[in-house]
Amino acid sequence: MKLQKWIALLIVLGLLLRGLVALGADATFDALIQAALGDGDRLEAAVLSQSSLLMATAAPPISETEPEEPLEAPVTEEPPPPEEEPEPLSAYIPAMPDLWYTPPVTDPRRSNLDPRQQAAQIYTRNSTTYSIDIAELLTEPLSFDPGAGGPTVLILHTHGTEAFTPDGDDWYDNTDNYRTTDKRLNVIRIGEEIAGIFESRGIAVLHDRQLHDYPSFRGSYGRSLTAAEWYLARYPEIQVIIDVHRDAVPDGNGGFVRTTVDIDGVSSAQVMLVVGTDHAGLYHPNWRENLKFALRIHAAVAELHPYLMRPLRLREERFNAHLAPGAILVEIGTCANTLQEALLAARLFAASAADVILAGG
Q: What is the value of pTM for the model shown?
């Protein structure tokens, strides 16, 4: 029986040696040879040990089953990061220190304005050669119907890092020209306030909270255009796009103008609407519809708060407003205002804008 045991062990040993040599296990081969020179119990233990090693290092069996289908890409409600695009002409909005607030109708600085631009207490600064009749435009219906259902308002921020004068709990490290990436303190917080007012009135809102001007200011309008197109592709029912900014008006002494108005004893920032056109040569078939929409909002706000609105700006550049019939740019306060002043202005603006949106055409 002992001889048979030796024969069986030698057979197993031969098979193992062939496998180990194929795996390049030279050290294992030497260990087995040394064990063979000892007694049979050592050889048997070595064979069993190296058998386990061989099984552990052997290739796994080939599966006969088909691989699983790959999972679909998850659906996200945030647009993908857009590619860098050239900065359009509308990258910067020049200041207008001569008319940074809305003075009474009798103010002598009004003498050079076209009387047609004083309809419904609306004052404009027209940077184009286009002639506009405010009184007539206010009688024309809007071309969109916000009551069609689904998301109808998109709020975004081409210059999302724009911020206000640090004050109290709203303090931030103002080392970047009144800009911060803290979304609790920049104009994205203003957009949230406007969105909240709209939603409380039953208006569906999509709020893009991306910082299109960070880390690079250059190309921000190209990036916000990409984002707006992303939303429109998924929500074609969007008819109103509001690009929320804050202004910066130099005071001529190295500082900035703080635009304020008293609202029931509380200081509020002022608001300015900007309407782009095709005057600079860019395609913009919606600019007159945008202007009618802006004029409606301006008139609605001015009726309740006459000095809240600064003169409406009609500009040569289009500011991406060609995407929708109700696309406007709104400047809530300036960098010299506090966040709290801007938030009050945003609430007052949004309340009147909601009335106009709900009324539709």
A: 0.70
